[in-house]
From TrEMBL:
The gene is trxB3. This is Thioredoxin reductase. It comes from Clostridium zeae. Residues 4-270 form the FAD/NAD(P)-binding domain. It comes from the Bacteria. Pfam families: Pyr_redox_2. Keywords: Flavoprotein, Oxidoreductase.
Length: 285
C-alpha cells in the first residue's frame, strides 16, 4: 500500500490552499472531498474581502480555485473518510471497505456536520458505527438499524441486509427509497441510542426498537468522532498558531478551527497547516 506524505480532508479554501502548498513542496498528497468544491462558496452573491479578487461572485472565485488546482495537477478523491486512527508513525484513514495511509493529515472539514444523536458518541465502537460496509460482518445473523442521512446510505443498508438477520432503515430525509425487499423502513425520529456496555435499543418519538447495532450514515461527522483523541472545544478543533493539534502529525485549518468563517482566513490557515506538515515530515527524516 502506498503511504502518502499528507492526506487532506476537505475541499474548501483551507483544504485546497493546503493542497497547493504541499504540492509546491513536492509532497505526495491526497485530498478527500467533493470535486464540486464548496457548496457554500457558490451561493455567495459578492466577495469583496479576498485580497486581489475584488467584486467577484462566489461562483467566479470557485472557478478560480478549480482552475488553480487543475493547473497544478491536483486531483480530488471523492470518497468519504469515516475514521482516522493515529498509528504511531502514520495515520490510517478508513474509507468504506478500504484504507489509506498517510504520514500526516490536515483536517479542513468545515463546520457543517450533523449533531449526534444522544448516546451516539458514548456508544461509538460499542455497537455504533459510521461505516456499514466496513463493520457489517460483525453483525452476521443479528439485528441492525441504519440511520441514513443521504441516498448513499441506501446502498450500505442493502449490503448489510445480505449478512444481518434483520435490517431496519431509518431515513432522515424524504423521498423514494431504493431498498431491498426484507428491509423494514421506519419513518420515525430517533431520540436516543441506549445501552450500558453496548447498544441495546433506539428510543424514538414513537416507541422503541431492540437492536444489536446502529450505523449512523451522514455526510460529515464531528472532528472528535472522525479522529479519536482529538482535542475539541465548543465544536472547534483546538490548534496553535502553527495549526498543530494535540495529536502529533495532525494539523487543522479553516472553519473547523473557529471563527471568523471567512475564505481568506481559511486559505491562509491552509497554507500554514501545509508548511507545518512539511516541517513535521522533514523532521522525521
Amino acid at each position: 500500500m502506498d503511504r502518502y506524505d499528507i492526506a487532506i480532508i476537505g475541499t474548501g479554501a483551507a483544504g485546497l490552499s493546503a493542497g497547493i502548498n504541499a504540492k509546491i513542496r513536492n509532497k505526495n498528497l491526497i485530498i478527500f472531498g467533493n470535486k464540486e468544491l464548496s457548496s457554500k462558496l457558490s451561493k455567495a452573491p459578492k466577495i469583496n474581502n479576498y485580497l486581489g479578487f475584488y467584486d467577484l461572485t462566489g461562483n467566479e472565485l470557485k472557478t478560480n480555485f478549480q482552475n488553480h488546482i487543475e493547473a497544478m495537477g491536483i486531483s480530488i478523491t471523492e470518497e468519504k473518510v469515516n475514521n482516522i486512527y493515529a498509528m504511531g508513525d502514520y495515520f490510517a484513514l478508513m474509507v468504506n471497505e478500504k484504507m489509506y495511509e498517510a504520514k500526516s493529515i490536515i483536517l479542513a472539514t468545515g463546520v457543517e456536520y450533523t449533531k449526534p444523536i444522544p448516546g451516539e458518541e458514548r456508544l461509538l465502537g460499542k455497537g455504533v458505527g459510521y461505516c456499514a460496509t466496513c463493520d457489517a460482518p460483525l453483525y452476521k445473523g443479528k439485528i441492525v438499524s441504519i440511520v441514513g442521512y443521504n441516498k448513499e446510505a441506501e446502498e450500505e443498508a442493502n449490503y448489510v441486509s445480505e449478512l444481518a438477520a434483520k435490517v431496519y432503515y431509518i431515513p432522515m430525509y424524504k423521498g423514494e427509497y431504493d431498498i431491498k425487499e426484507g428491509i423494514e423502513i421506519l419513518n420515525k425520529k430517533p431520540l436516543e441510542i441506549v445501552g450500558d456496555k453496548k447498544v441495546e435499543k433506539i428510543i424514538f418519538d414513537q416507541g422503541e426498537l431492540i437492536t444489536d447495532g446502529v450505523f449512523v450514515l451522514k455526510d460529515s461527522i464531528s472532528p472528535s468522532q472522525l479522529v479519536p483523541g482529538l482535542d475539541v472545544s465548543e465544536s472547534h478543533i483546538v490548534v496553535n498558531r502553527l495549526m498543530q493539534t494535540n495529536i502529533d502529525g495532525c494539523f487543522a485549518a479553516g472553519d473547523c478551527v473557529g471563527k471568523p468563517y471567512q475564505y481568506i482566513k481559511a486559505a491562509g490557515e491552509g497554507q500554514v497547516a501545509a508548511l507545518s506538515a512539511v516541517a513535521y515530515l522533514d523532521s522525521k527524516k
